[in-house]
Design brief:
With 386 residues, the chain is α/β, with parallel strands linked by helices. Helices cover 28% and strands 23% of the residues. It folds into two domains: 2-197, Metallo-beta-lactamase, Chain A; 206-382, 3-Layer(aba) Sandwich (Rossmann fold). The protein has helices at 22-27, 138-145, 167-177, 194-197, 218-225, 251-263, 276-282, 292-302, 309-328, 349-367; strands spanning 2-7, 38-41, 45-48, 54-55, 74-77, 80-86, 94-100, 106-110, 128-131, 154-157, 187-189, 206-212, 232-236, 269-272, 286-290, 332-338, 371-376, 379-382.
């Protein structure tokens, strides 16, 4: 299957004509505009944002020129089959198109920006999938969890537009998700696709530490990194249930917990524990730890580290266990931690102890991480590589 990417931008391209947003203004000078999304499959079938499947004007005579959506949601011509797929959020809405070529190769393409195709039960694996990952990156993890997208599937970002700050951030996110970012005029093939397949590299054990202050967006960034994973364990080091969040009467904490839970994909497993060393030693999939600060606060209490040297020795042993497990884990791990050292010196001895211990722990984890990011006002700053 050969797919010509006629246009790789959103419904209005990128930059969007007349748009004054920072992303579009930043995009104009780089000379690499992305036009309205449209692809042509094997020279005979065109799929575009918001439109019905159609035969390409220059396509092979009769192969798909007469294809049109039928009452049963199917279109066919000379061995081609094109079926309408519902959207995962609204079954009555078109989510995309399921295309099977005469040779049996299969492609998935979204109906438009914001669409998330939901193939029916029994659907087979796709050889190539274009997805609006800027609209819903978790749809990739969902399709991988169902076995519809595998390591052999060529996955590409569709509808690249001003929902992302710029090309550099688009490339970073695509690398998180092991997806390619084709440009206008590029051909993506299932026969010769080394660049697309190797865009994110092969999965291997790796550790990422995401730092940030309160309401910096650090948790959202960590979740974004693992959105494309099919098997994720979310480790809550503080209470994750609304009934026990911060105590029965702590309405504000319960609201924070509820907001975190609403953002997470429904198929992620949630584990409430402070045994991070045990989790890291046994996990084999992807793990998101949120967060290191609440783990440390719990351990300070449990070790009675507030009370004197003996408790701090017990805390040192537990942090050493955590660092050792972090160093040797076979899982793909993203951990969120607070950056507490940029404010004023805490007035209490307990506050200073927490700040100092967390600062030292962050240093140790960062030293054993492949990547470390600092999130400030929602903007990630990648810290210098070793």
């Amino acid at each position: 299957m050969h797919v010509l990417v006629e246009g790789s931008g959103g419904a209005h391209g990128w930059p969007r004509t007349g748009c004054r947003c920072a992303s579009c203004l930043r995009k104009e000078p780089d000379g690499a505009a992305r036009t309205r999304s449209s692809i042509v499959v094997d020279g005979v079938l065109r799929l575009a944002a918001g439109g019905e499947p159609a035969g390409a004007a220059a396509g092979a005579a009769g192969a798909a020129a007469g294809a049109a959506a039928g009452g049963d949601g199917q279109a066919a011509g000379e061995g081609w089959r094109v079926r309408r797929v519902a959207d995962v959020r609204d079954a009555a809405r078109a989510g995309g198109w399921d295309v099977t070529a005469p040779g049996g190769e299969r492609l998935l393409y979204p109906a438009g920006p914001g669409a998330a195709p939901d193939p029916p039960d029994g659907a087979g694996r796709y050889d190539l999938a274009f997805l609006d990952l800027l609209g819903d990156p978790a749809q990739l993890g969902r399709l991988r969890a169902r076995g519809l997208i595998t390591a052999d599937t060529i996955t590409a970002v569709a509808f690249a537009d001003h929902r992302v700050p710029g090309e550099r951030e688009l490339a970073r996110r695509a690398a998180f998700w092991l997806a390619g970012v084709p440009s206008d005029g590029e051909t993506v093939t299932t026969a010769r696709s080394a660049r697309m397949k190797k865009e994110g590299g092969s999965r291997r054990p790796w550790r990422v530490l995401v730092l940030g202050g309160a309401r910096s967006g650090k948790s959202e960034r960590a979740e974004l990194r693992l959105a494309g994973e099919p098997d994720v364990t979310y480790v809550a080091t503080g209470p994750d249930g609304a009934s026990d969040a911060g105590g029965a009467g702590d309405v504000e904490w319960a609201a924070r917990v509820a907001a975190h839970r609403a953002r997470r994909p429904a198929w992620w497993r949630t584990l409430e524990t402070t045994d991070l060393a045990g989790v890291l030693a046994s996990a084999r999939g992807a793990v998101l730890i949120d967060g290191i600060g609440t783990w440390l606060a719990a351990e300070l209490d449990d070790c009675s580290a507030w009370d004197g040297p003996a408790g701090r020795d017990r805390l040192a042993a537990r942090t050493a266990d955590l660092i050792a497990a972090w160093r040797q884990t076979r899982a793909c791990v993203v951990a969120v931690s607070d950056e507490t050292g940029m404010g004023v010196v805490p007035v209490s001895a307990a506050g200073r102890l927490f700040r100092d211990e967390l600062g030292r722990l962050n240093q140790a984890l960062a030293a054993e991480s492949e990547e470390t990011e600092l999130v400030i006002a929602g903007r990630p700053v990648r810290l210098t590589d070793w």
